[in-house]
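tool_call predict_complex ligand=pantoate
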Amino acid sequence: MKIFKDPAKMQKWCLKRKREGATIALVPTMGYLHEGHLSLVETAKKRGAQEVIVSIFVNPVQFGPNEDYEKYPRDEKADLEKCRKAGVTAVFFPTPQNMYLEAHSVYVEEELLSRGLCGARRPGHFRGVCTVVAKLFNITVPDFAVFGRKDYQQAQIIRRMVRDLNFAVKIVLAPIVREKSGLARSSRNVYLSEKEKSMALSISAGLKALKSSKGAMTIAAFKRSLEKAGLKIDYVECVDAQTLEGRSKPSKGCCVLVSAFAGKTRLIDNITL
Ligand code: PAF
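tool_result ok
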């Protein structure tokens, strides 16, 4: 497994492999890898990529001033080991200094799908995500990139960026990976105490109930169940799965997205109906 820290060297190697005819898949991550990320690697391998590149970069530009950039969990050694075991062929591990040179002044901003949901609560977040993902696409020239459905809004925004800026990259979405309990896997789950973890289960349980109720269960009832479990709701919204426009009632073709705090930890999850 190759390890690159320097964007120029990573790019040179990817361009060479591309000229040699290799199919390149990119799995962009912020590290502290768990089974969710490894399932993205699996998806890339199954789709026949010869080079599966995992980028590991806690992107400072997508964190707000009061968010957890400094404290975001990191474990370089364990991540490399997991990548090796999973059959990743190259890891891109840049530093903030070599990704954002002094006086970096170009950013990518999506202006429609980023307005609501997480975008409304985390100003500048998707601008940071789009900028880094555009850079990663230019550096690794992938044929396709795999993203998780857990970050549903992010995935739709990246699709839009690819469409509107004509990136020659196919976006593949992989299903949410859950713990046995139903909790969606996230690097931020390490912040949760046992009590918070059990509170958090009301999110996946409620989403599941909402889906199986086929419209009988209301968003208001779902919200009450989250509050009863002790969570602080950031948002619960039912939106059109493509346009992310608000819908009054959960129905077929909608996505219900949740963001809620268990203690200080913000958790997100969603389900498509
Ligand atoms: O989903 C993530 O982990 C990040 O937002 C991403 C796509 C790797 C960009 O930093």
